[in-house]
């Protein structure tokens, strides 16, 4: 009797193992795709790029799988143009779309590069002039430039801070003085340092999260700073007076 049970148990164990392996493969494929689909995606994407962008001397990275929409995406970039890079999306046996028009022709890549390069300039100024060596200051090009960049921006053009491009700067640093007066002084000193280095911004913001405090300031203009009344404007904004357009959020965090 026991001898008869052993083959049955082995069959059941083998069946259970097969089901387990199949389940694991199904889950894996759901998240990372499968090698055959990836191979087809890479092949179709290459054909698409060769047919549509053969004059651009492009490199194609291997496609990666997005389990959220079941699509493959491959990044494509030029060997000679710093701003010519975009993504191609594949699903259900064909290329669904690419973002060459918006990212390359629409100058999104160029403007993003400008923001990154301007951020590096601003970060160095804050470190050198104000002493915040580990600051993470960020510069963002105004959204209206993204909507109509053609009159000012050209593909691969060199960044120049004197270009007539509206931009906003947000100081990200560890504040030693969390008072309104201390915040006003940092913004005023930053504005002065930027002006002395020919950097001009439409708006200023500040973000600090250290020593149990969270501080977020937004919407400060050069006129607010130059008025000499910035501390009062910040106090009013803190009291929920939004007439000036300044936003102030200060909160002591739980330790």
TrEMBL record:
Every YfjL-like C-terminal domain range: 117-228
Domain YfjL-like N-terminal positions: 10-98
Transmembrane spans: 12-32
Domain of life: Bacteria
InterPro entries attached to this UniProt entry: YfjL_C, YfjL_N
Keywords: Membrane, Transmembrane, Transmembrane helix
Name of protein: Uncharacterized protein
